[in-house]
Design goal:
binds biotin; seven-stranded mixed beta sheet; globular; BirA Bifunctional Protein, domain 2
């Protein structure tokens, strides 16, 4: 198996800051944990930590994220947004747009399921976990963790996600050069994160809407204390999902797990 190396990664990287400081590990508990440790040591914005294997890779809602060494990408980016500039929801949607654009660059047609699961033919190909760091002084920190399935075969996925997960290879037959994909993804991330810095969240939302696969669908929303059903009717100006529940009240969903129940309801 070919590991990611610093040299091959830097060659051809077109970003200004993202990935200029880069740590490639063969194994970590979770790259998000490594990122938080580096934040304590003063790591710069844009520092990227990648691992071939994560012994405690985590996903949203307390789920696990598994990764076969050499087949996909699992990495974290350290962000140090200016105070007030960014909320985690913004970073999350911006990252989903960047991942979608990268897949498009490689000839694929991904859709985004709120808030930022990337789907190919209805199956998950990429997951994003945004975690906030401690707010010390004037500088908050955010760790953006991304896992992408590129060259996995069916055998690489554990039983419980075999039917819901996919890779670029499985859904298109294309083998992907991991370094090229990684470099492209960082370039798109830097761009969409830049929109937030310029206070252009509307740009993020517009790009997200072009690719979304959640609106006008019947959904089941699972939150820590309750489950409810309704129709996804829109996003608010901060990126939260608006769901009209069965009593006709529109609820704002900031976090939670959303399952799409039926095909799109077409508006006449
Ligand atoms: C999800 O879809 O639930 C989010 C998955 C996020 C996985 C990535 S892999 C790199 C980073 N490190 C982690 O432990 N998780 C994220």
């Amino acid at each position: 198996m070919k590991y990611l190396s610093f040299d091959s990664f830097q060659k051809g990287l077109k970003t200004k800051t993202f990935g200029r400081s880069f740590l490639a590990l063969s194994r970590a508990t979770s790259t998000n944990d490594v990122a938080f440790n580096l934040i304590h040591q003063g790591a710069l914005e844009g520092t990227v930590i990648a691992a071939e294997e994560q012994t405690k890779g985590r996903g949203r809602q307390g789920r696990r994220w598994t990764q076969t060494p050499g087949k996909g990408l699992a990495f974290s980016v350290i962000l140090r947004p200016r105070m007030g500039m960014i909320e985690a929801a913004g970073v999350t949607l911006a990252a989903g747009v960047a991942a979608a654009k990268t897949l498009e660059d490689f000839g694929l047609k991904p859709r985004i399921k709120w808030p930022n699961d990337l789907l190919l033919n209805g199956k998950k190909v990429c997951g994003i976990l945004t975690e906030m760091g401690p707010k010390k002084d004037k500088m908050g920190s955010v760790v953006l963790g991304i896992g992408v399935n590129l060259n996995q075969t069916k055998r690489d996925f554990p039983g419980e996600i075999k039917s819901t997960a996919t890779s670029v290879y499985l859904s298109s037959g294309k083998k992907i050069n991991r370094v090229r994909f990684f470099q492209r993804l960082l370039l798109h991330l830097e761009e969409s994160y830049g929109w937030l810095a310029e206070d252009r969240f509307s740009k993020v939302l517009a790009e997200w809407r072009k690719r979304e696969d959640s609106l006008n669908r019947q959904v089941k929303v699972t939150q820590s204390r309750r489950v409810f059903y309704g129709q996804a009717v829109g996003l608010d100006e901060r990126g939260a999902l608006l769901v009209r529940n069965d009593s006709g009240i529109v609820e704002t969903v900031h976090s939670g797990d959303v399952v799409m129940l039926k095909s799109k309801i077409m508006r006449r």
